[in-house]
Amino acid sequence: MFADYSLSELGSIFVMQGFAGLILFSVFVLMALGLAIIFGQMGVINMAHGEFMILGAYVTYFTSQFFQNVLPSLFPIYFFVAMGLAFLASGGLGIAVEWALIRHLYRRPLDTLLATWGLSLILQQVYRSVFGPREVGVELPSWMMGSLPLTDVIEVQINGLFVMSLTFVITLVVGLMMFRSRWGQQVRAVVQNRVMAGAVGINTHKVDRLTFGIGCGIAGVAGSAFTMIGSTGPTAGQLYIVDTFLVVVFGGAQSLVGTIFSAFTISQAQSTMEFFLSGSTAKVLTLLAVVGILMLRPQGLLVLKIRR
Amino acid sequence: MSHKPPPTEMPALPSALRRKLLLGMAALPAAAVLPRVAWGAAPATAAVNTTGLAVSDDSVTVGILHSVTGTMAISETGSVQAEKLAIDQINAEGGVLGRKIKFIQEDGASDWPTFAEKAKKLLVNDKCAAVFGCWTSASRKAVLPVFEQYNGMLYYPTFYEGLEQSKNVIYTGQEATQQIIAGLDWVTKEKGAKTFYLLGSDYIWPRTSNKIARKHIENVLKTKVVGEEYFPLGHTQFNSVINKIKLTKPDVIYAIIVGGSNVAFYKQLKAAGIDLSKQTLVTISVTEDEIDGIGGENIAGAYACMKYFQSLDNPNNKSFVSDFKKMWGDKTVIGDVTQAAYLGPWLWKLTVEKAGSFDIDKVAAASPGVEFTAAPEGYVRIHDNHHLWSKTRVGRAKADGQYEVIYETAELMEPDPFPKGYQ
């Protein structure tokens, strides 16, 4: 397929393909971060992760409507407000869910799986009843659309750049919180030994609730960002959930670095294969490779070494 | 869950509607005027219902079977709305053979076995004289044996891949060749297109449709397909294929992507700097309903090829659009399938009145040749193969989410569900 192209054209295409892979990588990291925090730190499998994301997307939609109708002059920057609100909304809902549902099920991981799956169905129907079954289109400020032409062939998508920087910032903040803040220290202590952490005076319930809330809040921000590249509808969360779990499980459930590493591997593999093969085939091969590697390394790519 | 039938007392008809109904009736055989002339003259129940359907002296029960929950609710909502509107209008006009239509609505819940189970319920327990419903091919395939076994009548609204024909189904949407061939001919003639890149979601409809498109492109138009690709349903990342499109520079991108993937595809296409006012893109899967989710500004400039657009400029359609908005709100949009769903109850009414009976066998036998002159799309007629003769149109998407109709076939396209040389 390359015979008819000049060297510079090929070079440009590889640059753009690399960029496509990086965008996919950022999307994966953003999707998986919230889940990784919850799954990794608390052992709770949150099947409703996609629905928390979609809540963020809907918040973005309503914020855009509000700014369009009430504050049209500030419309170009509404997206930042929307992301903040999405974090609060999804995080708030997360904390409420933790209080009402999850905290009763901490010792029963399989039940949390069922309970959160039920929750996801309930949330989907609530969105459908409240916001309507049709998809909504989120209008973006004009500066976020289109691309920057670097050369004749190489064009860099602005929303891709935006997602990449957002992912970078959020990952950095989560990293700092996890390894530099008091909350992070407590979370890590609880992960390593819940009973001992409780014994030295850490309020493990409070840590759990905050962790779940922050995880869900990040899902909300991700959902908000994905209105740029995907659809917003009651069941759109389902589009992301499989890839999200794939990234988290492949990366090793308890390691944030592992999540990032696995997102990078999967996204690059998938985007390269998509270029040379067809979309469906690429997906099948990616899944096969992940299954194969997990058979050899059931604990995932990176594992936290803790004493059991 | 079943809904109560609508109240029998109807508000006075808006004048536009009345005009349209009269228009429709003018073209009908005398039988159609009968219910308007005299209530007492309605034929005896024993004469019009010999097989024990739910028909009484003053009412007839039909079923509506769509998903109002689950993933497909997003698409099927419009069809339910259109069918209810048609039933309301028929009742306002006096009903069918002097009988008001009552409907029982069942939810297929986006789950194919549920569709089959509910279809059985509508036919066996409720004895529905007709069922308007299904959307995806999978749901239709699931209910087909039920309708054939219990001898029911299904009016199916979606454009679909063809390769099917049943005594018990009337297909009110277009089958694939009707939709595809005229569009490819048009783009070849108008745009001088020589190379095509075929894209689709990975299931039966896009694959069959692209197969037909490829055969037509290679064997009839003698031009070239430079790429053909499928993506899993729900795929959200299209940057790699967009790069491939940039590399191969096709004259036409031919896209049959459905559902949430659609939104991702068009947003990323735009973000990647592919300007649809310069790059020709033809789709057969994006109606006004989908544009709501995609955002008009992301798809403006694309061409869609189907039989109906909300912006069609004819008196039938104007009154249909205004009635639809009056019933379901100003912000609702009407896509191709919604209009096709609206045809269902009307075609059934016309057929029953032609047959002079509600009996399924008589209705099935009377169907070929039934014409609906008040159809929003203009005029349709049922073919011997139970599909519709209809025109195919090309619309160009505008930023406000509507299509501008720029071409329509001079003749009605003949439905050909088993096209020779295209399989």
TrEMBL record, chain A:
Gene Ontology molecular function terms on file: transmembrane transporter activity
Keywords on record: Amino-acid transport, Cell membrane, Membrane, Transmembrane, Transmembrane helix, Transport
Any single GO CC term annotated in Swiss-Prot or TrEMBL for this entry: plasma membrane
Pfam families (UniProt xref): BPD_transp_2
Regions crossing the membrane: 12-40, 52-71, 77-101, 113-131, 158-179, 210-229, 241-263, 275-296
InterPro entries from the UniProt entry: ABC_transp_permease, ABC_UrtB_bac, BCAA_transport_permease
Subcellular location: Cell membrane
GO BP of this protein: amino acid transport
Topology in membrane: Multi-pass membrane protein
Protein family: Belongs to the binding-protein-dependent transport system permease family. LivHM subfamily.
Protein name per the record: Urea transport system permease protein
Naturally occurring in which organism (per UniProt): Chelatococcus caeni
Automatic annotation (TrEMBL), chain B:
Keyword 4Fe-4S: no
Keywords associated with the record: Signal
Pfam family, one: Peripla_BP_5
Record's signal peptide: 1-46
SUPFAM superfamilies, sorted: Periplasmic binding protein-like I
Full protein name: Urea transport system substrate-binding protein
Organism annotation: Chelatococcus caeni
